[in-house]
Amino acid sequence: MPILVLHLVSTAGAVCGLLYCCGCLWSAAAFHFRRRQARPGQFAPPVSILKPLCGIDPQGYESLRSHCLQDYPNFEIIFGVRDPDDPVVPAVERLIREFPSVSIKLLMCPRTSGMNLKVSNLLQMLPAARYEYLLINDSDIRVEQDYLRRAIAPLEDPHVGMVTCLFKGVAAGTLGSKLEAISIAADFIPGVLCATQLKGQLDFAMGSTLAFRRSTLDAIGGLEPLSDHLADDYEMGNRTFKAGLEVKLADCIAEHCLPNYSFAQFFEHQLRWVRTVRSARPRGYAGLILTFAIPWSLVGVFAAPGAAWPWIVFSAAVVLRFAVALVFEMFILDYRSGLRDLWLLPIRDCLALVIWIWCYLGRTVIWRGKKFEVANGKLRPA
């Protein structure tokens, strides 16, 4: 009897996972069609780009430099660091010398306003921004020359309060880095598009891009309430949505340059991410158990090894999961270099189930080398 129950539960879980894969493919087709139809308009107001920094990221100089190469009529870049001896400071000073025609400022931000030091930096950088239109993105984001124009374009509509964008993980050579890149391409980004397509709207934002007006910041109560939140990007988008303004996906793709993660660092980073999601959206996180097509179908095979049906379900799960990964790598993220690592997908999917379970065994996360507890989306010292 227990084997029968396990077989039924695993089959139901695998079928849900298969349906989820179909939803991801449907959302990919819809996004790809919208993106092909999109054309940047003439809307190009002056923009202040805010880049809070801490340390030098992989390909850090190239990532920062890409923001100075924007094909955009009027913008400024404000970099903020806490420590004047931070190793990223020489890179910013080099940019200032290399691009004298671009308005670049480097600010020291020594004041601590909460557990989230990125928000602490932003609070001290914001008064230096000259323009109504603002853009914040993570320090390890690399962009194309038309990025700023495409990220700002949706704000021409006064009903749009914030713009965010998808991103691809550019893997380094380690196993952990490759698993992280696959997680982004075959799990996180499909989940974002699928949820957006099902709900017909986006109710959060991603750290790859946060473009908005100052009036939006006023409508959500400013940055101060976010000073203890781990997922400040999610919170800004969610609060914008709750304020009655739309959150839109830009039709550009940013690059997230991944570190040389070891396997342990990959696991640690994934655990931080899932505990953040669980803290912000506990019911949504619990529902992720229905998306693990390959692990569920494997359980079904072990529960009834002599039956043909579990093997059919398992084969379908493998085919659909690889289809999702291929479609997103090639047509959504345009990251064909990642295709050579797709053999790791089944391993990554089984690890994802382990991490999903592990998430419920505690609340601690490691962020920038420090240990915190996450409760109700907020950080506190562990």
Q: Please report the number of helical segments.
A: 13
N/C terminus separation: 44 Å
Helices and strands, in order, run as HEHEHEHEEHEHEHHEHHHHHEEE
CATH class of the domain at 46-274: Alpha Beta
Strand order of the largest sheet: 3-2-1-4-7-6-8-5
Instruction: Provide the CATH architecture of the domain at 46-274.
Output: Alpha-Beta Complex
The gyration radius over C-alpha positions equals: 21 Å
* Largest sheet data: 8 strands, mixed
Strand content: 15-25%
Helicity, in percent? 40-55%
Q: Which quaternary structure do these chains form? A: single chain
Q: What is the third-level CATH name, the topology of the domain at 46-274?
A: Spore Coat Polysaccharide Biosynthesis Protein SpsA, Chain A
Description of the structure:
The protein has 382 residues and is α/β, with parallel strands linked by helices. The protein has a domain at 46-274: Spore Coat Polysaccharide Biosynthesis Protein SpsA, Chain A (Alpha-Beta Complex). The chain is built from 13 helices and eleven strands. It has an eight-stranded mixed sheet, with helices on both faces. Strands 9-10-11 form a three-stranded antiparallel sheet, with helices on one face. It starts with a helix and ends with a strand.
Features:
Spore Coat Polysaccharide Biosynthesis Protein SpsA, Chain A; 8-stranded mixed beta sheet; 13 helices; globular; 382 residues; alpha/beta; 3-stranded antiparallel beta sheet; single chain
